[in-house]
Structures are given as structure tokens and as C-alpha cells.
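Morning. Coffee machine broken again, so started the prediction first thing and wrote up yesterday's gels while waiting. Chain of 102 residues, entered below exactly as on the submission form.
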Amino acid sequence: MDWTIWEFLTVVIIAFAVVALAAGVFSAYFGKGKNKGYGILLAVVGLIVGLLWLYLIAWSNIEPFCDVAAWDVFYDAIINLIGILVGALIAVGIFLVTVLKS
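Came back before lunch.
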């Protein structure tokens, strides 16, 4: 897996956009007062950043962005994330078994 800086930035920015959108919607729905406004602002920022980046890497012909194979990057990132989660859950499971048995 030979990632460039643009592919790394794609994963970071899309992850930021998705989490900001989800956290903003959550905060806007369950928040009160200022928190509701901040949640809406966070959701809008996440949506704008995500859509802008997706436009740049998928549909624009701007040179550094058009070289990013977005779906391949997302596929690799999801597979890596699943592997990390499975490994971490196995390690936590073994840790809990050893702690609870002693």
C-alpha cells in the first residue's frame, strides 16, 4: 500500500467531515440553548468540508486532487479500520479474561 499525502489527507478530511456531521446532528437534536446552535454549525461545517473535498477529488480536474483514487482509498481505509477493530477487540477480550480469572 503506497499512499501519497493526498490519499492520507482524503482519509483524514472525510473522517473529520463524517464525525463532525454526526456529532453536530447529535448535539443539535439533544442539545439545549447554545449547544443546539453549535451543533447545527458543526453539522453544516462537516457537510460543507466533506462535499467540497469529495468534489475536488471526484469531479474537478485540478491536478493534485484528480490523482486520488477515492474509492480505492476508502476501501483500503475501511479494511484497515476493520482489522484494527478486530485486533483491538481480541486484545481487550484476552485482557478481560485474564483479569477476571485472577
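The helical segments are 5-30, 34-58, 63-66, 70-101. Going to sketch it on the whiteboard this afternoon.
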